[in-house]
Amino acid sequence: MTVKELVEFLNRYSPDMPVMVQGYEGGFQDVLEENITTQDIVENYRRRECFYGPHESLEVVQDMDSPDGVPGHKPALILGR
Q1: Which residue, among 33, 24, 34, 54, has the nearest Cα to 42 in the 3D structure?
Q2: What is the pTM of this model?
């Protein structure tokens, strides 16, 4: 999802509706501005463990691979808890 697609999606709802994320082990938390960041992300960088997401931060990939072996990357907006 791109920022443009997210804005279009959010425009379907009342501007007064709260925006939340799932809590770590249950419940919900408010989205806080200090938990919204940007990072360089390597898309579709899968590891063997299925519980990791399909994308990884460039920093982690650089630590795992040789600097010459890092696939293409781009910035992404990250919504944290």
Answers
A1: 54
A2: 0.71
DSSP assignment letter at 48: S
Q: Radius of gyration of the chain from Cα atoms?
A: 16
Q: Express each pLDDT in 19-71 by its tens digit.
A: 998 888 899 999 999 989 999 988 887 666 777 888 888 888 877 665 556 66
Distances (CA, A) of 80 to 7, 27, 34, 50, 62: 18, 15, 9, 20, 22
Report in angstroms the alpha-carbon separations of 74 from 36, 40, 56, 63, 81. 17, 5, 11, 17, 22
Length of the chain equals 81
